[in-house]
């Protein structure tokens, strides 16, 4: 028999509301420093006169090009992404889990590397395919340095986005809707067109809106494939304005249409999805039990071919091309035994600027990954509970960078931190500040998702047995958020390791990162070394993904960087 | 163990969420060691009341005292971790990243109790909650009933003087619920702490409690021992919610004075209830609602041509429920639900004789 005793009570500590508010204010100041200050710095030098010149005859081209590019790229991306998602989610397509995984992996391959691979294959004169067929055709088969080349590369980058959103729409869809159709006598195909498609249309539309925003703001493809032949886009204009002949005021004015379009597309996406804000790394929710898969029957073989074409184009072909290129003495000679070598990798090891680039990339990726996991975790803690106007403001500010394309973020970061009064130009810190700015919304989102999955009763139970708010975080909530914090780390790590759009504007010769080093190799015309450096970048990226999947048991399909 | 002085006291406790009044000026006294149940349908304010006692919700007005100490008032608020109460949550809230032993040991660890003492007390409480040998299991390896016991063990291990139970049995299947109900009762007897249970299940409330607090729409309808609540419901709501009683409206046709109080004759249509007792304010011509429990109504089959006893009704519905049979009877325009144990089967349309003992007719003051 347990007797009553006075030992049940802990010394009563007064509510920690005061301390908690202080934490919120500190966080608010930090977030303002990271996000608010660069935006204010940008707005401060905004020049309305320059805005008018944007729409003059000679400057309107990039704007039109960007819009046409986005509009054209989403057509094949949708045509591929939607049926592919349906096949993976609903049919007995052989190896459909592998297909789904490879789409995720292909999305992690940096666009920079895909573009380079296709330059190797389809560069007008030097591309191996063109060179190989030149004697037969008397000219290039296809020139990747073209508008259609940029469209192709953008579509390759965008189709996984539409695949993901469609897949999540299918997963959230109540299977009984389809079963009801079957009971009514509809064939599987009729069900897809009459029921499924209608039910997931919002998801597809949201994916399209997001893919348009992504395409509008992409730098690598337009920079590598368009600019050399004089096709200008909004992002390459910004790049030129910063890198070729720096003019910050003009850059800020140039940013406005890009920001407006991005924000509009994200707004459309959010409206369609009916939620607030948007989430590029949305974690798929509501995976319902699926009773039956649809048998493809005789359509199996054509479906298999259709499913693998995008994977070959976006993943297998580029990676194989880069790998072979990296192992060759002279890439245009093709696969011959005496042309194979490891010397390109040996060169990278000895090359101090490559070494520095790899070191910088790793320091930044690990460091920013850690910082963002911490910051995201703290934000998720502090912003939880009863919503005050200050919390609301901090949240809005944290989500603001979603609407800022990376190139524009680059401009803002230069404005805010490069010169007076901080003089961070030429330091790694300025890159770090840029990465913090652009990854902040995702860190918050991932951490909040992790926190949201924790039943509030678990925290209350801790309080009930005597945990102070801090102890309840230490013993219960933080351990349960561990996976979410690791996911944040991995997402940010992958993000930073492959980041090019922002870095291309902000880096200095002392602070190159691996993607920048790949780019400078390419500019220098040493293709084999470009390929070798690309492979190193690829190994780090996919390695990060592998570690996430195997070691931390994080669902890789949920990581969309 | 039980003393008559109030141990937990809610005085004028009132809670509003925006425009919604979750609890309206609630007064409630609970004695030390008592087992009190807050009973009512969802949205009646029972959970809000419990969470205010726990300290998760601050009352808009009023004070909550435990052992004379003010825990909640407009000016003071002791947080849940400072109240030293135990609580079992509806979802159990067993921490998934800790073993059973770690779950149960954490409260003691927080209280800076020496390791050997912690081990001993955890073993003790695991034994008490019939969890022997499960200490090293992870929560996901446990069944619903076992999780429930872990939640209980964790709430009891630091010997709180007040244990709060928020619908602890509602997530369990029927057989397990009954088993745990009995365990809960014996645990209460064994440790002698004050238990406050929230439930919408009247069987739980009846079987476990010293007193039941019936709540509806943020108000207390009636407080009393289970039998009193059942036998003498004060309102339509209590009669129906607790006893699933038949309610019929009638008029007092005559009043007689008896040594024990007034006895009324009440007419409902053509049916006369000759001696309704327990309503001392009665006057001729008053409207009154009568409550009759389904099991207190008797039905007798009437053979063809027989005159039959009592009033004659017709069977409108007949349902076999296993242990009992539920029969819907139409009697002069009234529809009555009748429960009979091991009765003969009644056919729909059959003529039956309906009788009800005078003492089983409960008057409810109309308008309540």
Give the helices and strands, then pairings.
The complex is a heterodimer of chains A (561) and B (368).
Chain A: H1 17-44, H2 48-54, H3 60-90, H4 96-108, H5 111-122, H6 128-137, H7 147-172, H8 175-183, H9 188-217, H10 220-226, H11 234-243, H12 248-273, H13 300-326, H14 343-350, H15 352-382, H16 389-399, H17 406-418, H18 428-452, H19 456-464, H20 469-498, H21 501-506, H22 514-523, H23 527-550
Helix pairs in contact in A: 1-16, 1-17, 2-12, 3-4, 3-7, 3-9, 3-11, 4-7, 4-13, 5-10, 5-13, 5-23, 7-9, 7-10, 8-9, 9-12, 11-12, 12-17, 13-23, 14-23, 15-18, 15-20, 15-22, 17-18, 18-20, 19-20, 20-23, 22-23
Chain B: E1 6-17, E2 20-31, E3 35-39, H1 46-54, E4 61-66, E5 69-72, E6 86-88, H2 100-110, H3 115-128, H4 144-156, E7 162-166, H5 174-191, E8 194-199, H6 202-208, E9 211-216, E10 219-224, H7 226-231, H8 236-243, E11 246-258, E12 261-268, E13 271-277, E14 287-292, E15 297-301, E16 311-320, E17 324-331, E18 334-341, E19 351-356, E20 362-365
Parallel strand pairs in B: 3-8, 3-9, 6-7, 7-8
Antiparallel strand pairs in B: 1-2, 1-4, 4-5, 9-10, 11-12, 11-14, 12-13, 14-20, 15-19, 16-17, 16-19, 17-18
Helix pairs in contact in B: 2-3, 2-4, 3-4
Q: In words, what does this structure look like?
A:
The complex is a heterodimer of chains A (561) and B (368). With 561 residues, chain A is mainly α. Helix content of chain A is 72%, strand content 0%. Chain A starts with 16 loop residues before the first helix and ends in an 11-residue tail after the last helix. With 368 residues, chain B is an alpha+beta fold. The radius of gyration of chain B is 25 Å and the shape is globular. Chain B is 23% helix and 38% strand. The model of chain B has no long low-confidence stretch (mean pLDDT 89). In chain B, strands 6-7-8-3-9-10 form a 6-stranded mixed β-sheet, sandwiched between helices. Chain B has a 5-stranded antiparallel β-sheet with strand order 13-12-11-14-20. In chain B, a hairpin with a 2-residue loop joins strand 11 (246-258) and strand 12. In chain B, 42% of the residues are buried. Chain A binds chain B through residues 1-5, 7-10, 12-15, 455, 457-458, 460-468, 471-472, 475-476, 479-480, and chain B through 54, 56, 77-87, 89-91, 93-97, 106-107, 110-111, 113, 124-125, 128, 151, 154-156, 158-161, 190-193.
């Amino acid at each position: 028999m347990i007797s009553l005793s006075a030992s049940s009570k802990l010394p009563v500590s007064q509510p920690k509301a005061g301390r908690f508010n202080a934490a919120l204010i500190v966080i608010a100041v930090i977030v303002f420093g990271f996000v608010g200050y660069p935006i204010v710095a940008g707005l401060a030098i905004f020049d309305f006169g320059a805005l008018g010149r944007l729409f003059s005859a000679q400057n309107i081209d990039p704007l039109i090009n960007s819009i046409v590019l986005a509009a054209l790229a989403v057509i094949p991306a949708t045509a591929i992404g939607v049926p592919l998602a349906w096949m993976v989610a609903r049919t007995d397509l052989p190896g459909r889990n592998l297909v789904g995984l490879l789409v995720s992996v292909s999305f992690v391959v940096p666009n920079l590397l895909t573009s380079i691979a296709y330059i190797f294959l389809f560069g007008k004169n030097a591309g191996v395919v063109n060179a190989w067929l030149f004697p037969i055709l008397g000219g290039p088969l296809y020139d990747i340095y073209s508008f259609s080349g940029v469209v192709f590369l953008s579509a390759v980058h965008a189709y996984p986005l539409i695949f993901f959103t469609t897949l999540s729409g299918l997963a959230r869809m109540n299977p009984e809707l389809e079963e009801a159709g079957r009971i009514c006598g509809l064939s599987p195909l009729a069900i897809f067109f009459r029921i499924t498609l209608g039910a997931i249309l919002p998801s597809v539309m949201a994916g399209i809106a997001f893919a348009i925003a992504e395409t509008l703001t992409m730098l690598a493809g337009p920079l590598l494939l368009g600019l050399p032949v004089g096709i200008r886009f909004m992002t390459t204009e910004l790049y030129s304005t910063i890198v070729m002949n720096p003019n910050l005021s003009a850059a800020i004015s140039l940013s406005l249409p890009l920001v407006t379009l991005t924000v509009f597309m994200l707004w459309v996406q959010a409206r369609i999805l009916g939620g607030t804000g948007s989430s590029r790394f949305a974690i798929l929710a509501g995976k319902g039990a699926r009773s039956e898969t649809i048998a493809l029957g005789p359509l199996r073989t054509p479906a298999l071919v259709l499913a693998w074409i995008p994977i070959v184009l976006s993943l297998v072909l580029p990676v194989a091309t880069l790998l072979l290129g990296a192992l060759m003495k002279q890439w245009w000679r093709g696969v011959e035994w005496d042309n194979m070598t490891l010397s390109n990798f040996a060169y990278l090891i000895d090359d101090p600027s490559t070494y520095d680039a790899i070191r910088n990339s790793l320091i930044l990726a690990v460091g920013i990954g850690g910082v963002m996991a911490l910051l995201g975790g703290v934000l998720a803690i502090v912003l939880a509970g009863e919503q005050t106007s200050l919390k609301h403001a901090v949240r809005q500010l944290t989500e603001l960078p979603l609407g800022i394309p990376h190139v524009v973020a680059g401009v803002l970061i230069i404005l805010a931190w490069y010169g007076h009064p901080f003089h961070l130009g030429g330091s790694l810190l300025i890159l770090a500040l840029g990465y913090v700015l652009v990854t902040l919304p995702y860190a918050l989102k991932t951490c909040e998702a992790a926190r949201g999955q924790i039943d509030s009763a678990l925290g209350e139970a801790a309080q009930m047995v005597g945990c102070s708010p801090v102890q309840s975080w230490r013993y219960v909530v933080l351990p349960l958020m561990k996976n979410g914090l690791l996911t944040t780390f991995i997402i940010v790590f992958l993000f930073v390791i492959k980041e090019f759009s922002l870095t291309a504007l902000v880096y200095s010769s002392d602070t190159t990162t691996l993607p920048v080093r790949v780019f400078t190799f390419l500019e220098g015309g040493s293709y084999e070394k470009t390929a070798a450096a690309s492979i190193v970048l690829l190994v780090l990226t996919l390695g990060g993904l592998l570690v996430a999947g195997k070691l931390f048991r994080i669902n890789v399909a949920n990581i969309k960087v | 163990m039980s003393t008559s002085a109030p141990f937990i006291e809610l005085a004028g406790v009132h809670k509003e969420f925006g425009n919604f009044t979750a609890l309206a000026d609630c007064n409630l006294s609970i004695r030390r060691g008592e087992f009190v149940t807050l009973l009512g349908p969802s949205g009646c304010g029972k959970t809000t009341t419990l969470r205010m006692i726990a300290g998760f919700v601050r009352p808009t007005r009023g004070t909550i005292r435990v052992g004379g100490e003010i825990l909640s008032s407009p000016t003071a608020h002791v947080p849940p971790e400072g109240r030293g109460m135990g609580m079992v949550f509806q979802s159990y809230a067993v921490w998934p990243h800790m073993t059973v032993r770690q779950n149960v040991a954490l409260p003691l660890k927080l209280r800076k109790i020496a390791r050997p003492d912690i081990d001993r007390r955890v073993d003790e409480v695991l034994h008490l909650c019939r969890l022997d040998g499960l200490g090293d299991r992870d929560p996901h390896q446990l069944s619903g009933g076992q999780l429930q016991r872990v939640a209980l063990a964790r709430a009891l291990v630091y010997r709180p003087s007040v244990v709060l139970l928020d619908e602890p049995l509602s997530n369990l299947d029927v057989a397990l619920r009954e088993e745990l109900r009995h365990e809960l009762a014996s645990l209460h007897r064994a440790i002698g702490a004050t238990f406050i249970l929230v439930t919408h299940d009247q069987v739980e409330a009846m079987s476990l409690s010293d007193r039941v607090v019936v709540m509806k729409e943020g108000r207390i309808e009636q407080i009393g021992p289970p039998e009193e609540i059942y036998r003498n419901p004060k309102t339509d709501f209590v009669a129906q919610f607790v006893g699933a009683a038949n309610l019929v409206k009638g008029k007092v046709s005559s009043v007689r004075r008896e040594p024990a109080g007034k006895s009324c004759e009440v007419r409902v249509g053509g049916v006369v209830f000759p001696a309704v007792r327990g309503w001392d304010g009665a006057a001729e011509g008053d409207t009154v609602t009568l409550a009759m429990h389904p099991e207190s109504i008797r039905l007798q089959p009437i053979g063809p041509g027989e005159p039959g006893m009592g009033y004659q009704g017709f069977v409108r519905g007949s349902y076999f429920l296993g242990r009992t049979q539920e029969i819907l009877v139409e009697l002069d325009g009234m529809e009555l639900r009748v429960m009979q144990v091991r009765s003969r089967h009644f056919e729909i349309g059959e003529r039956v004789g309906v009788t009800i003992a005078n003492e089983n007719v409960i008057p409810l003051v109309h308008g309540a």
